[in-house]
Amino acid sequence: MMNEILAAWRWNGSVSEPVPYGEGHINQTYALTVTSAQGAKRYILQKINTDTFKDPAGLMENICGVTDFLREKAKQRGADPARATLHVVPTAAEKPYYQAADGSCWRVYDFVENTVCLQQVQSAEDFYQSAVAFGNFQHQLAAYPAHTLHETIPHFHDTPKRFADFQRAVAEDRMGRAAQVRREIEFVCAREADYHVMVDLLAAGKLPLRVTHNDTKLNNILLDKTTGEGLCVIDLDTVMPGLAANDFGDSIRFGANHCAEDEADLSKVNFSMELFEIYTKGFLQAAGEAFTPLEKQTLPWGAKLMTMECGMRFLSDYLEGDHYFHINYEQQNLNRARTQFKLTSGMEENWDAMQKVIEKYC
Ligand code: ADP
Ligand code: GN1
Ligand code: MG
């Protein structure tokens, strides 16, 4: 199977066995090395999750379009275009991905060397750098022709729809797990009125759609190992028209605390106002100029709703038997959901302070 896949690319040397790589929840990612007389060069090979992404051709068209665009921008500002964005390696048939005989879809990227990818915040500076990079990403793509983008997952950040899916998962209770998570279910249901806030503002024409990343967690960015600079935004599968506050918010839900996403000891999981402020500063410095006053005011809503949305998605997956997010142990999705709810409580306690921080950097 792997031989058939590897044979689809024209490698300039001998190819090593692909080894599983990284900690993404969706695609299957491998690293491989090609050795030739010129030396060794690494690549990322990914099996695109086609249960999640139903239109791999449209998805790869988005990624090629966006990365070509970002490469041009990097050249214009004198940055190294090979490190500023992903580079899709075309197949021998000059296609952006390969569809194997069994229907699975595969792509190859150049490995961006001399970088680090963090699973949780280690220093405030790293988090600040990620904020600047995600802010710049959105700022640069402001000029991208949004109408050419395929919607790779319809209703991706439609929080009321996510809540309806959650209610269905609870009602079906396929694994018989609902009884053990009553408190968590109540926590989600108690916040039902909140889930409409952003989609209603969008529907009323009060918030603009922008080209956004939609999955801005810290491990979707590569930091330069030497300078610590936020270098390359990766995981571009969900680049679609969306709300600025959601890109801001998804970074906050993942990064504005000192724990892993699945930390089992909730006493350690605490929303950090210090990290919230650092991210706000970097993100608004990089992208804020273009935002409307209401977009800025609603950034705390982005944080709270992305956290609740993700929490209910993890809990739904736990109730449905863990078929969406990759897990390494049985309760992982439940642990992930619980951290999100604890973080939400922290945001609710700090709601006024969050607004003040936004005002400070406007
Ligand atoms: P998923 O959609 O499953 O999250 P990602 O595209 O985010 O998959 O890739 C998973 C991990 O692989 C990343 O978190 C990162 O560690 C690593 N990775 C992905 N692409 C590259 C690349 N071009 N160079 C170096 N590391 C990469
Ligand atoms: C998934 O692909 P990855 O691991 O970067 C998910 C995000 C969630 C995140 C939670 C396409 O992101 O929406 O916020 O897990 N991506 C998709 O960690 O569903
Ligand atoms: Mg990822």
Taking the alpha carbons of the first and last residues, their distance comes to 53 Å
Shape-level CATH architecture of the largest domain = Alpha-Beta Complex
Given as residue ranges, the uncertain stretches (5+ residues, pLDDT < 50) are: none
- Shape from CA axes? globular
Q: Kindly identify the CATH topology of the largest domain.
A: Aminoglycoside 3'-phosphotransferase, Chain: A, domain 2
The level 1 CATH classification of the largest domain is: Alpha Beta
Small-molecule binders here are: adenosine-5'-diphosphate, 2-acetamido-2-deoxy-1-O-phosphono-alpha-D-glucopyranose, magnesium ion
How many strands, what sense, and barrel or not for the largest sheet? Answer: 6 strands, antiparallel
**Average of per-residue pLDDT values:** 97
User: What structural class results from the helix and strand content?
Assistant: alpha+beta
Question: What do these coordinates show?
Answer:
The chain is an alpha+beta fold and 362 residues long. The protein has two domains: 2-113, Phosphorylase Kinase, domain 1; 124-360, Alpha-Beta Complex (Aminoglycoside 3'-phosphotransferase, Chain: A, domain 2). The chain is 44% helix and 13% strand. It is built from 13 helices and eleven strands. Strands 1, 2, 3, 4, 5 and 6 form a six-stranded antiparallel sheet that branches. The mean pLDDT is 97. It binds adenosine-5'-diphosphate, 2-acetamido-2-deoxy-1-O-phosphono-alpha-D-glucopyranose and magnesium ion. InterPro entries: Aminoglycoside_PTrfase, Kinase-like_dom_sf, Pseudomonas-type_ThrB. This is Phosphotransferase enzyme family protein.
